[in-house]
Each structure stands twice: as C-alpha cells, then as structure tokens.
Amino acid sequence: MRTKSPEKRSRQKAARQPTYRVETERNPETTPQYFQVSVNILEARKLIWTNPQSANSYVIVVLGKKKHRTSVRRNMDEPCYRENFMFELFVSIRDIQRSGLWLAVMEPRCCAPPKLMGEATIDLGAIWSQPHHQVFHKWAQLSLPRNPTAGAVGFLKVDISIIFRGDIQVMPVVVNDDRVDDNLLLPTGSEQQPANYVITVYGVFGLPNGAHSQTDSKRYAKSPSSFVRVSFCGLSVKTAVQPRNIHPTYCEQISIVEMFPNMSEMIRLDVCSGEGCINRVLASAYLKLGQISHDGENGFLPTFGPSLLHMYGSTAYGTLGTNNEDGPYHRGAMLVSLRTIVPYYQQRLRSTGVEPVVPLQPESLWLMEDFCIFCPILEVSMLDTHVCGRLCGVAMTVGELPTDDDGDEEFVSMMTEIKNRKLYYTGSMDVVRTVVDHGNLDFEHTFPVLQLATRLPDFRFRMFRNNMVHGIVADLETSLKDVERRLKNSEFDNPRDLIEDLNRAADDAAGNILKFLDIVQYSSPAGSAENAMVNYSTELDQKQMALQKEETEKIYQQITKKTKCSSMLSLIRSVNKNIDQGTVSKKDVKTMLADVTAMAENLRSLIYKTSEGWPDLVIWLLNNGSRVAYAKISIADVIYSVIPEQNGRNCGRVQTIYLKPLKCSKHITGLPSSCFCIAGKIELIIWMGLYRQMHAFEPYLPKGYKLKVKDFEICLKTTTLMVESRAFIYRAKLSANIERQSNLHTFVRMNTLNALRDTKVKPKTMTPIWNQVLKVHKLISATKERVENSPPPILVEVYDSNLAGKQELVGRCEVQPIVDDREGYEHAPKLKWYDIHRGVEYTGQLLMSTQIVQIPETILKSTVYSSTDEAIICDSNNAAPDPLEVEPLPPHLIPKSATYKVDIYWWGLRDVTTSRKPCVVLEIDDLTIKSDVVSDRKPNCNFPNGRSSQTFQASLNEIYYPPLSIRLYDSSTFGRTLFLGTNIVKNPNKYVVTWIPKVEREASLRSVSITASNFYQVNQVLFVKKNLSVPNPKYIHTKLTERSVPLCNKSKWKKIFCSAVQNEEEFALLPTSAEEKSLNAINNYTEVVDSKDWWTRYFSSLELYPGELESQLEFSKFKDWCATLKLYNGNKTGIPEKDEQLYCGFLKAGIAIYKWPPPADTVAVTCNGVELNYGYFNDYPTNEPNKFLVRVYIIKAVNLVSKGFTDKLDPYLAINYGNKQIGDRKSHVKNTLNPVFGKMYEFRCMMPEDYLLTVSLYDYDTLPPDELIGSTTIDLEDRIYSKHRAMVGLATEYNSTGVNKWRDCKKPSVILEELCERNHLPPPNFPDSATVTVNGVEYRDTSTSERSFKSASEKKESICLNLLHKWHTLPICGYHLVPEHVESRTLYNAEKPGFELGKLQMWVDIYPLNSNVYIPPAVNITPRKLENFEFRVIVWDVQGIQVNDPLKKVSDLYVRAWMDTIDQAQYTDVHRRSTAGEGSFNWRMIFRFQYHHAEKKLVRNEKGPFTEVEDHVPPIFVVQVLDSDSNLQEDFLGLH
Fold first, then answer.
1. Which residue, among 358, 373, 880, has the nearest Cα to 652 in the 3D structure?
2. 1087: pLDDT strictly greater than 50
3. Of 848, 866, 878, which Cα lies nearest the Cα of 777?
4. Beta strands in 295-390 (DSSP E)
5. 526-529, long-range: CB < 8 A, 24+ apart
6. H or E stretch at 948
C-alpha cells in the first residue's frame, strides 16, 4: 500500500544519506594495492640469427620503470632460458590493466652493441581478463618495429600471471604445448602484420554534470570540461579538451599502429575531466575486437560504426569502477567509428597520431522513433532488510539521448505525464517481514504497471536478426537437452526413438533457418525497420548479415543432405541405415547427438554480442527514494515485432530477476565480483514496442489478468488461487574446492511465493543428508493457466552457518517446479541431481525435486488463514503442523541404499606427459580411494601396490546412483597437489558385478555330467545339448550354427549370468553319447586343406575378420581385464574436436563393484571361481614391467584412398612402438591402391613403455617428406592380459612339423591346464593319448580313418585344441579364445577425422621373453612370384553343329576361343559351305598368361596412357563356334 505523498517522499529522500559508493569511500577497484606480476621466460624458436654459428641470445623484460634480463644462452639455435622474474607493483586494478609488458630477444655481438632480434608487447589488461589472471606456456610472436615487412621473426614461450601479494598462484595443466601454432598468445593462429587502427571520436551525448563529491549537488553542478582518451595495447592517445559541455563534440581521428591480430582485444575509450591536476574518468566505453571481426573463411577485419556506444558506471557521480563490469548508472553515449587497415607500412609500429575530421549529422546515421515500455510487477520478495530498510519501491529507467525532434504530440503528452507523475516508480511501500532479515512487498492483489516513454534511434533491425537466430538455437538446444536427459536416465524403449527425435529437431531447425533466410533476404522492405536497415546500416551490419546468411545456408544444406562433405549427414545416413536393420545402439545416438550439438554451437556463434546502439533497461530497488540495488536487462530481449520470430526471447513473458546490491554491507572491503548476495527478487513482465504498436501489449498478458487504466495509471488484477509449493530435499554432494571443508554446517533454504523455508543444519560434513520436505502454503493472485504455463520458480540455496551465526553462501540454483493438481505425496516427482553454483564457480550437487500443487476448491473451505496471509491446510482431526517438526520424505522417494564393496586394481597411466609424481583418486558417494604415488616420470608408468578395496553405502539403481569420479593429481612436496585431469562416469552400474555362492557354482558344474543321454555328437570329441530327444542326423549340417538353447534345470546363477551377458552362448561340453556310432557321417565335418604354403591357406580356410580384432563382439574389446578411462583437463563437451584439446592421457584400472557382505554361511565367488574375500583382482597378474617379442605380419592393403580421382599411390610401411620406429621406405610398392606387402616385422618391446603399436602407411615421394596415407593403432597390453588369449591365435589343427607347424610357445595341453587353473577347475587328466578329462567329464578322440599316422602326443594335443576352440560352450566360466586369423584394420588420418582411408590386412603375434620359453620360428608370408604359362590349343574339327536358321542349308563355320577377356580371342580360318554341321580346321592357338597358384586365378594387367590396372580373374577357357554369314552369336560349346 502507498504510505506517503510525493512531497513527503522527496523530503525524506533529501534527508537520507546516499547508499551508493561515493568518491571518498574505499573502492577496491580504484584503490592502489600490492600486486605481483610473475614472468617466466621458457624458450625461443624460429629466431633469425645474424651469426648462426654462435647463436648467442638473452631476453630483456621491462614493466614500467623496472627491467630484468636473463643470462646469455650460448650456441643454442632454439635457446632454453627457464628463468623467472617477479615485479612488485603498488597500483590500482585500472592502472595495471593499462600497463604493458615489453619483451625483447637480444643477440650479443663482439665490439658492437647487441642486436634486437625481435620484440613483443603484451597488454596486462588482456592477461587480467584470462582465467586466474594468467596465461601458461603460450608463444608470443616476435617482430621488428623498424622492419614491419619482415613479419614474424621468432617466437618466445612465456608464463605470465598477475596475483595479489600473498595469494597462491594456481598452476594449470598444459598438454601438447610444443606446437607453436596451437598455443600462440593471440586470439587467432594467423601471422601478425602491422595494422593501422583508425578510431574516430565524433562526440558524446548526455555526460553527467561534474558533481565530484558527496556534498556536491547535481542540480547546481557545472557542466564538465572533457576530453577522450583512447587506450590500446599499452598506448594512450588524447583528443583536445572541450570546455563546459555535457554534449561535447570532438570530431578527431586517432590512429594507432600496432600488430594484427593482437593479443589485446579491447580498445578502451575514457571520457575524462579536463579540470584539475587529476584527470578523473567521467564515463567509459570499450570496443572488443573479437566481437566486431571474424577470422573465418568469410571473415572481415575489425570495423565499427559510426554508431553509439552507451557508457555505464557503478556510481551516479564521481569516478568509475573498472574490472570490465559495467555499472547500472547511464553516463551518456559516445558516437565513434573504427576501421582497420592491414597491412600498413607507412608508419613505424607503436606510433600514434591525431587529426581532425568533418562532423557528422545524427540525422544521417539513424531515425528517431517513439517507444513505450510497460512493466507489470507481479512479485517483489527476498528483500534483504539490511539493504532495503523499512520502505522500498521499484523503478525502471533507460538511458536517454538528446534530440531536437519532439515527435508526435500525443506521445509527448504521454511522456510528460509519465515523468511528472513518476509512473515508472511504484513509490515507497512498507516492507512486510517474513523472517528476521527478509521481507516482501504486498500489492494487495493489485499489481502496478510501470510505464516509460522515450525517443530512441531505430536500431531494431540489428536486434531482429539476432533474435531470430537465438530462437532457432533455443528450440534446438531444448530438444538436445531433452534427448540427453532421456539418454542419461534410460527413459526410452529403443534408441531408434532418440534418433528420430534428433532428426525431427534438425528438420525443425532447417525449417526455421529457411524462414530466417526468407525474412532477411527475400522480404521486401515494407516497414520502417526494413527501411532503417537499408538506409542506416553500417559496414559492420552488412558484414554480419552477410555472414549470418552464408553460414545459416551452409547449415541448412547440411541438414537437408545437399552436401556430401558433412560428417553429420554421413552419420545420419548410416544411422538411418541401421534403423532399417534394427541395429541402432546408444553409441550411434551419442555420436549423432554430438554432431547436432556442434551444429547448434555453430548457430550460437552467429548471435553477435556487439552494441545495438541502444541503452540497457535498468530495474531499480529504492530505499526511501535512494537506489540500493539493480538489475540490467537488454532491450533486445524484450523488444516487440509484428513478426513473432523476431520478438525478444522474454518479450511479454513472465520472468524472474534477482537484484544485485550497489553496496553490500557483508563485502565492503572486497571486490564486487566476490559478492554473490541478492538484494531482492522481482517477478515481472516487460514489453517494449513502438508507440503506435502499444495496443499489442495487452494480448501478451497471461490469461485471466485484466488491465485497469485510470488517468494514465495502469494496474493488473486477477483472481486468487491457493497453491502449495514443496521442495523434497534429500542430500547434497559439495565440491572439495570449498573453503572450511571440515567445518561446514550446512542447511538448505527454499525461496518461493514470498516466503522462506530452511532445513535443519547438518554439521561437519561434505555430503549432508537432510531428508526433509519444505512446504509453503499460499493464497496467491494468479490464474490456473498462468501457474501451469509459467510456474513461479523456486530458488534453492545452500548455506554454511558457523558457530557465531554468520551465514555464507555455498551455492544456489533456480528450479522450475512440476505443476500438479494431485495433492498426495504418491504423485511427487522423482528426485533429481541439480548443480549448484556460487557465481560461475561450481560448488556441488543437490538431490531433490520440487512441486507446486494447486489446491482444489473443495478443500479451500477447510483452510485456516494466518496473520501473514499464509494458509495452512488442516482437517477436523489434525491440528496445524509444528513448524519446528521435521517432515521426512515419503518412503517411495528415498533412494534404496545398500552396502557395496569396490575393488580397484590401479594398473597404470598412459600418455600422461605433464606429471611429476602422479596419483589417482576415485570418488563415489562418500568413498574416496587414493592410489600410491608413482615416482616414475615416464609418460607410461604403472602404479606400485595397485590393489585396493573398501566398502561404502549408496544407491546404485535408477537415477539416484552417484557418479564415479576419477581424478588425476600431481603430488609435489610439502603436501601440495596439482589437479591434472578427471573422468566422470555418470553411470557406475557398468562396473557392478554379481557374485554367486561357491557351493552353487560347484554344484552347477558337477551337474553337467548327469544327463549325458540328452546330448548328441557334433564332431569326434564335442557334444552339445539340444533337446531331450536326439535329432535326426540327416538334418544336421556339416557345421554347427551356434545359438542359445535353455537348459532343463535353470538355477539362480543361470538367470543372473544370462541377464548380465547377452551374447554368451549356453552350450555345454559333455561326454560321448551312446548314439556316436550312428553319427559317424558328421565326424569329418571339418575339412583340413592340405596346404602347400601360407598363402594357400589364406585364400581357402583362414579366418578373415572384416574389421579390427578387438571390435568383434565375442572378444569384448579386450577390456575384460581392466577399464580404460580417458582423462580431460576440464568438462567434456561431447564434441570430438574440443574434447581432443582437453585430453591429457588415460588411466588403466580394474574396477569391480558388488554387494557386500554375503550371508554368514556363504562364500562369494566370481564366475571364474575367485573368492571375493581376497578381492576381485586377486588372481590378476602383477603390473611389473615385462619384455615381449612382437611379430607384426602385414599382408596387404585394400582400397586405399588416393589424392586424386585417377592418382595411384606408392605406399610403404612404418611401425612405431613407444618412441621407436621401424621404417621400410625402400620397399615401397609402386603405383597401386591395393598393395601386397607380405612382410613380417619383429622387434622387442618393454611394457608399459611400448604398449601402443602404430602401423602407418606413407606415400613415397622422391622429395621427402612423404605424406601420411593413414594409420591404425593396437594396444598390445590389452592383448597380452586379456582372458581371450590374443597373443597368438589358436590354429585349426595341431601339427608338429611342416608348413603349418604349431606357432604358439605353449602347447594346447599347457594352455588347457592354465585355463582350468585360472577358472578354478581341477587340472585336466589324460588317461591315455586319445582321452582327456576336464571337470570330471571325459572327452575322447574316436576317429580311426582320418590321419591314422598321428603320434600319441599329436593326438593328445589335437583333442586339447578341439576343446580350446569350444571353450566358450562351457557354462559359467566359458569364453571365446582368439583363433588363428587375419584382421582388417581401418586406416585413419588425424587431418581427415572420421574418413576411412583404406583397410590393412594383418595380424600380430606376441611372445613373452622369459629364459625358459621356446619361441617358434616366424611364419613365411612372402608372396609367391607370378609364373608365366603358355596354354596351347589345337582345334581339329567340329561335328553335329545345328544351324539356327532352318531355311539355311549351307553355313560358313569358324571357331573363336579366349581366356581372360574376349579382347584376347583367337580365331580359326573359315570352313565354308558346311552342309551337315561339320568342319575341319587343324588350327593351333597359343595363349600366354600369368597364374597365381595360391589364389588360383589369372592375373591380368591393363596399361593405359596414365593408369595401370591389375585384375585377378578365374581361369576360364571359352570356346565358341560361329557362322560367318550370320549377324547373331552362334552356339556356345563349353567352359573350361
């Protein structure tokens, strides 16, 4: 309610002390402080030497009047300095931002002054704007100011940091910093060139009067004398002083010659007072070069205006605050322009100049229009009584520009009434206190509508373009977030549904882009906005619009599949193909989600943040008429357009803003950036449009709200509604970066509906569990539709309360509640994790859910209203709930927790190059497990004492499971740790394993031999259970088709393991049945080819995998022994290009989580029989370094991709392992895309240093360097330690001699013994040479006819080998073993990501280098040379030839024959006038050809003028008899 007249309010305002910061108070941003500037000179590269033989150099560092230099480095072409310098400064933040650091590399000379080799100037303001005010391992480009045409003359690697004296410097992690191009100390990677930055300052409009202190009065203050100071890259240039004018006109052009691109991205323009000894800053503005230029393919140089830059300050009068944060006070607008001339050699570097220019008329730059702003205030709450006091109000202001044209008379009359009656201000109102320190304003169900009328330049055309692009991006990102949420929580029936949603979102984006292009490009300029765009657009507007159109057209073509180079489209096509085949996986969804996300980011980059030429809208909170808090709103977000797509994103929508205090009593001595306090919350609607469009405001009001107008005053009225706001607070996980970790006493506060609710305080924990329901009952003035469409948000805050009662914010988040009309708790939404932040700093997560319940009218009769207008629902039998009583969450919402045990085998780190003493920490819920510190500084190192086990209690079901966090630290001395990288596993269920009782496992394995009659024979030793009756042998194929068949008696463990492993076959190894004699026809189903050499077996019987060996489903990617976790120095984005920049190595570790403990009388074992009392990884091998012999067999490459359409390659092989390389450049294969190598490379390696094997193909060139075709990588460590035995493949048969001699260092019987020992089975028993007993089951070789010459040892090894090939049929602990094979590995090139560049057919054999291990000789895969043959054919005669034409009695016959192609056919002579179909020739034909014995094909070579093609065709001989008088082909006689 309104309490005082305007006269009384004015008098009270005059008597009250102002609450804004004045010049006499301490301002941390302008007060001198102690700073330390640390400069670390590391190394230099690519220097241009005068005397390269000596190569002596040193570096000079200058900051202000202080100078340091390094010692001289002698005889070093690329000198390494490694010297650190510290500069102590006592200056203000503003002064340090304007300072420049000068670096110079000098070359000492004998009997002559040293020569300047290159210099660089670094703007400390740009360093201050970086995270933690530092740059780390960056390259500064050196140049010569006296010779600007020389370009870059070298690079200097530096570390620069600015810290307050006494603070600790935060050292970041830099990965792969050796590449100069990727780590330049520049905004782009292009080479610097001299440039002339021409800044033209025309004038300033609306400067504040010169009130300099608290005692001055603005009304009687004099107009200031002023000048403009332009600061860029440490240089400052001033205009002339204009005396006594608040609208000064300068019209001066300032030129600054500096390098482009430049590290300093900001040109600062300060309007300074020209009076007195100190040039005080009256107003300030800046131009960010990154926002007014583009470095892409269709980029443009920095350009701006002529246009307006609006200036803001943190105080009404006096000096300005800095830190690049604009305050709320409008200080006027500056008319300025910028153009950049590159290259520029007319003046030397760092030279400046000032010259006058012709004035501009504002009428030629813009068109003034009449605008109206309407702002209904729906709620004012969360008022901090220390800031707002007892009386406060809300006001709205916008910066104004002077104009001679008053505009429409009705508009002028309206504007005058608004100003005179202060309709932009609610007036002072009583603050209703809800708790001790917080209150709200009670509007008594009548909401005031603030009004504002002003004349502004019509720059809407700039806003409309950005608003349309923002709408496209917003819709697309909403769909992406929904798909990402459903994918994370598994809220889908089939991944195909998510693919369809992504396709639908992309199609909608394409339609919106088409509409944007139609409006921007093809619409006729009918309205005033379009005319303004044509007549008043600047060069920057035209450049940005052209870039927006071109880039959106590209994205539209990508979506509509009109381009062939888009990775996203190829993915969509491949995924759609998978949809038809029903093989869509979650990986396909993730890949497509990443591509669509990249497309959304490309669209978002087209939303330009340049100044639109309009001031911001400021919402003020006033205490007794004095401004105490504010919130700034961009006009572009609330502007109205007749085209809905051009509306601002918040135009006419209910929005919630949080007010920032101008002066916070809790943070008086700190920087404004360290204050996160909220002075109040306002819920409002803002609409801004032309005066002639003001009729369009009312339709934007929520349904049910009525607009009341009386004598220019406007208010809103609506009905009342009873609602209950609920917050189900369960627990939180706070970040380890928070101060006072061990002494946190946390509670949660809910802010909603003008009320606050707090939970109980949980002391001394980083993972507090509150388990409390917070509720607010309220009778609000709102309609049901408004609550459903725009539910009041709930602000949830976590506070730390110390023993003295002081509360410090830990983090907060704004939550949109779920609206429901069902009152029962059974309809409460499920709990969900929400990230909380303090400012931009992430501080933890909160598990909770929120809900707003609409109370039905039938219950309102039993509602009792309290004195504070808050309603508490009661029934006749129950009293009102006690506010001190804690209400727990309903049981169905509380996550069901269980006790788990986690076993970890810290194996090792790979590719970690930035560590000194690395260690890894695993965090899941409250549990933290830390590995031992690795003292080895090698990039690939293993942990000592790697096994760890601990128990914890958590919920690992549904969405409540806690993420598993892996963090990599570098532990240095004195207990300090440096964070290097992290990996967050969102779903730890992938590491959850299920154990079985040892008794059940043994009983299940023993029960296999009971029902032997239910099994039939597959070959001479293996028998598979099919049905209770033996099938008819005639329906059994020669090879068994593997398929899953259920057993008769399914036990508990069977159900568990069938559900856990979907691809595991359910076959059983069983003894011989009685029907073996009747099935002898099947015994010889495997035909062994009598191979003469390896190539014959390759073409006939060898297993050829179409892809990589590890990608085969039966081998589980060889990750069964440990997990590989990539570590990222930052948050993973899902976009491969960006994630690659954050990648800093990976961790190899075994992780197993299982429920624990088992019942008292139960021994828990794994499927392999390991007793979990000793740990899941108890039987795993040690991770000590070992030596191995590796043989890499390269057969051939297939379908290599050439550089051109008809080009051929000259490929050769190169092998890398660790830091070693084997090259075979001399053995390149000439002019082919399908080279046959047939080579074996043998080398010795040490694990883990040489764990990664890289096989590369290069294109031979007579002038090196050769171009990389593609490469493939193999993790040798995975193959060595995998249970699938991937070191050497199992041969199809055992031979002790001959070409196919057994090539494993262990015989099949030894391998079988090891498998039994590993799976805790009894060792195999051999009663005789043809019988083996495994797990109590007897297997015997009953073959008599085949290979009766086998020795006893060969028979024993053969039956063991057959068992190994079928080891995967063993229940519980069976799995596939790698057979003898050839794998086809795809070749990739990092410069062409995602494109397949060919296939490489190869295999790898690995042997341990132990003293007692015999290593068999290598396999000879040298290709056999082609042999030349001559095929002679004699055609004697033909008989019985039937003529096709019955009327023709005489024929002229001849014979045609060929091999290979008909082009090589040979002909006999013609036997004329044959009447009986007979003919005599006596003709000899000779055919010469090349024959490939192993492949059994003819080799044909076709040579063209520019190409040569080799083809392999079957050896077919064709003979034809033809009639020379007929036009048709004659009879075909035969094929040979």
1. 373
2. no
3. 866
4. 303-313, 329-341, 352-356, 368-381, 383-384
5. 527/642, 528/367, 528/369, 528/458, 529/458, 529/460, 529/461, 529/464, 529/641
6. strand 947-954
Tokens of 1336: 């109590």
**Contact assessment for residue 116 and residue 104, using Cβ atoms and an 8 Å cutoff:** yes
Report the 10 Å Cβ neighbour count for 885.
Answer: 6
Residue located via tokens 């920049």 = 1141
Q: Which of 164-168, 251-255, 1206-1210 has the lowest mean pLDDT?
A: 164-168
Tell how strand 193-205 and strand 249-260 pair up: antiparallel
Whole-number Cα distances in Å, 212 to 245, 652, 807, 1298, 1346: 16, 40, 37, 103, 111
Across the chain, which distance is largest between two alpha carbons, in Å? 136
Q: Which residues are bridge partners to 954 per DSSP?
A: 898
DSSP string, 4-29: S-HHHHHHHHHHSPP-S--TTS--TT
Question: Across the strands, what pairs with 953?
Answer: 899
Chain centroid to Cα 30, Å, comes to 40
* Closest C-alpha among 113, 53, 115, 106 to residue 81: 106
CA dihedral sign, ordered 738, 741, 743, 747 = positive
Q: Is the peptide bond before 376 cis (omega within 30 degrees of 0)?
A: no
The 3-state secondary structure of 797-836 reads: EEEEECCCCCEEEEEEEEECCEEECCCCHHHCCCCEEEEE
The first and second tokens of residue 51, run together, are 């005397």
Q: How many residues does the chain have?
A: 1536
- If phi > 0 it is left, if psi is from -120 to 50 it is alpha, else beta; for residue 87 that is beta
DSSP 3-state assignment of 205?
Answer: strand
565-610 confidence digits (pLDDT tens): 334 444 444 444 444 445 678 888 888 888 898 889 889 988 887 7
- SS3 for 484? helix
Confidence of residue 882 (pLDDT cuts 50, 70, 90): low
CB of 1359 within 8 A of CB of 1339?
yes
Q: Cis (ω within 30 of 0) for the bond into 306? A: yes
| Beta-bridge mates of residue 773 | 728
DSSP code, position 1291? P
At 60, give phi and psi (nearest 5°).
-110, 135
∠ CA 1123-1128-1131, rounded to 5°: 120
Cβ-based burial of 842 (10 A; exposed 0-12, middle 13-18, buried ≥19): middle
Two structure tokens written together for 685 = 């609607």
Query: What gap in Å lies between CA 987 and CA 844, rounded to an integer?
Result: 18
Q: How many CA atoms lie within 13 A of 126 on its CB side?
A: 23
Amino acid at 556: Y
Q: What is the mean pLDDT of the chain?
A: 80
Burial code of 245-278, b = ≥16 C-beta within 10 A, e = fewer?
A: ebebebbbbbbbbbbbbbbbbbbbbbbbbbbeee
pLDDT in tens, 285-323: 889 888 898 887 778 899 998 999 999 887 765 444 444
d(CA 1105, CA 1401): 9
Closest CA to 814 of 830, 843, 789, 835: 835
Looking at residue 1082, its pLDDT comes to: 32
| 3-state SS assignment for residue 131 | helix
Least confidently predicted of 62-71, 452-461, 851-860: 851-860
Give CA–CA dist 960/953, Å, rounded.
Answer: 13
For helices 460-489 and 528-536, what crossing angle results, to 10°? Answer: 110
Residue showing tokens 């988040």:
813
The residues, ordered by sequence, that sit 6+ positions from 1354 with a Cβ below 8 Å of its Cβ are: 1294, 1295, 1296
pLDDT digits 0-9 by tens, 700-716: 999 989 999 988 899 99
Alpha-carbon 1368 to chain mean position: 39
1047 band by pLDDT with thresholds 50, 70 and 90: very low
Whether the bond into 261 is cis, omega within 30 of 0:
yes
